[in-house]
Design brief:
Length: 94
């Protein structure tokens, strides 16, 4: 997963504000780039699999989407007898 870099900070400023910056990364989920003499030397990011204060995309719209009209969501979309692609692709078929 690629983490967005929210800001860049010098190593000396990072040293002075380290704990507050760690809290910021945990809350926002955005990385901070740390530089020394103007060159990137490190990056503070949230741990893998953790999005900080952000929600994951899975289940984001749960309960917000509903079918319109009379729709049976348990009914098959296509009649299984009409599906022939699996028969045509059986081994031994030309």
């Amino acid at each position: 997963m690629v983490t967005a870099i929210s800001k860049t900070i010098t190593a000396s400023a990072f040293k002075a504000q380290c704990l507050a910056l760690m809290d910021e990364v945990a809350q926002t989920g955005e990385a901070i780039l740390i530089t020394k003499n103007g060159k990137p030397v490190a990056q503070l990011t949230p741990p893998p699999g953790r999005l900080g204060g952000r929600k994951g995309a899975f289940g984001l719209h749960k309960g917000m989407v509903a079918p319109v009209g009379d729709v049976d969501l348990d009914a098959p979309v296509l009649d299984p007898d009409a599906w022939t692609a699996d028969i045509a692709n059986l081994p031994g078929k030309p």
